[in-house]
From TrEMBL:
InterPro entries: Transposase_17_sf (IPR036515)
Species the sequence originates in: Shewanella hanedai (Alteromonas hanedai)
Source taxon at top rank: Bacteria
A GO BP entry: DNA transposition
Protein name per Swiss-Prot or TrEMBL: Transposase
Transmembrane portions of the chain: none
Lineage: Bacteria, Pseudomonadati, Pseudomonadota, Gammaproteobacteria, Alteromonadales
Length: 179
């Protein structure tokens, strides 16, 4: 612990300040954060494609998709319908895999890529312009320090916690409230 504190130039308990949690308040925030995390190995040049990015949920989802399954330990994709639906994301696993693949091709310097029509439809349903999506999936950690979602979801969240100040409201509005 002392050695890690020395390397990180910090003091205090070992885990103190090293890991933070953020409330993801809607599907757009969840998908943007998932894509950001799933694409970290690509941005860091530790993997060239999502299938080879070890220890990521995208790799587990791809392996499961080959068997026509979804990983049991991950939040499932339940499709596009919202009625009589179990908890899960309102997109199909195939849609998410396509969106991450398209995004990964764009952020790689050595790949030419573009958001496909299928992925654009997902972004349209989320009401996120393509430029905002690319910013969210490359800078999520820098853009948001607290709860993430639309201003409406952020208001509900802050009211529930009896918070007077909406930390990060400007970035939530700029990047997620694009209507």
């Amino acid at each position: 612990a002392r050695m890690a504190n020395k390397e990180d130039k910090c003091t205090g308990r070992f885990w103190e300040g090293r890991f933070k949690s953020q409330a993801l308040l809607d599907d757009a925030a969840v998908l943007a954060c998932m894509a950001y995390v799933d694409l970290n190995p690509i941005r860091a040049k530790m993997a060239k494609i999502p299938e080879t990015s070890d220890f990521t949920s995208i790799q587990r989802r791809i392996k499961a998709a080959f068997n026509g399954e979804q990983p049991k330990s991950l939040l499932p994709f339940v499709g596009n319908e919202r009625k009589n639906m179990p908890k899960g994301l309102m997109f199909s696993a195939q849609d998410y895999l396509q969106l991450v693949d398209d995004t990964g091709r764009i952020i790689r310097d050595d790949k030419r890529g573009a958001i496909s029509q299928t992925s654009q439809q997902i972004l349209d349903r989320l009401n996120i312009p393509q430029e905002n999506w690319l910013k969210l999936t490359t800078d999520f950690g820098r853009l948001f320090k607290g709860a993430v979602g639309t201003l409406q979801e952020l208001d509900v969240y802050c009211e529930h916690l009896e918070k007077k100040r909406r930390q990060g409201a400007a970035n939530c509005h700029r990047w997620l409230d694009s209507a």
